[in-house]
Fold this sequence. Notes:
By secondary structure, the protein is an alpha/beta fold.
Amino acid sequence: MALKETSMVVLSENSGVAILETQGLTKRFGGLTAIENVNLSLKAGEIRAIIGPNGAGKTTLFNLVTGVLTPTRGKIFFKGREITKLRPFHRVKLGIGRSFQLINIFPELSIRENVEIAVQACLKKKTSPLELVDRTEVRGRTQEILKRFEWVEESRSAAGILPHAGQKRLETILALASEPGLLLLDEPTAGLDESEISFTMDLIKETSQNRTVLLTDHDVKFIMRIASRITVLYQGRIIAEGAPSEVATNREVEEAYFGGIT
């Protein structure tokens, strides 16, 4: 059964300052509308999940927020500043970090070198383009990160020989190394087993204490356990939004997953 046309159901409200806001966000690819009139508001410090069946527009929404795609219509604000037309690297400088559904690391470089590149990029965004980055500070911060995630001993190994779970873990750590105020995680548990998912959950919860997290994942069980609030997309539109317990019992959401596209 196809999901009938519906307006967004706002299930509950959160208080706090919006760190990310979209207004009427729309993206069309020719005759296909991937995202339509999305109004999203994230409060500082929350873990927000975006869920929906395949083709719902989740990755397109991420690409719009990070600047990979330009919206057909609508606006995007970060910490009250409009960023709709800013390029991706400008958004990184403002404090938006991202991991990808497909692993995005330097496989031929060591784990340590991957982290050093991320740390150096973070330091560069805080200085003038003509100002040299202190290599001692880069090495020091890299060592702190490797110690924090218990990877000092393996740090000389090539990133490309890590198992899938290790590469996903490294990508998340690289995104965190840039010290983003808003971290977007695209399918962070894809291909992971139960123990690896548990580790990823702990990592996200720990790091979310100082930042806002926006994530998408097909593991609904994982989403229900980690998210403080969930936004549901269906055919490019928001159809429901609220706490996990509210979303789990919403009829429109049930139709989208079990009666719509799978």
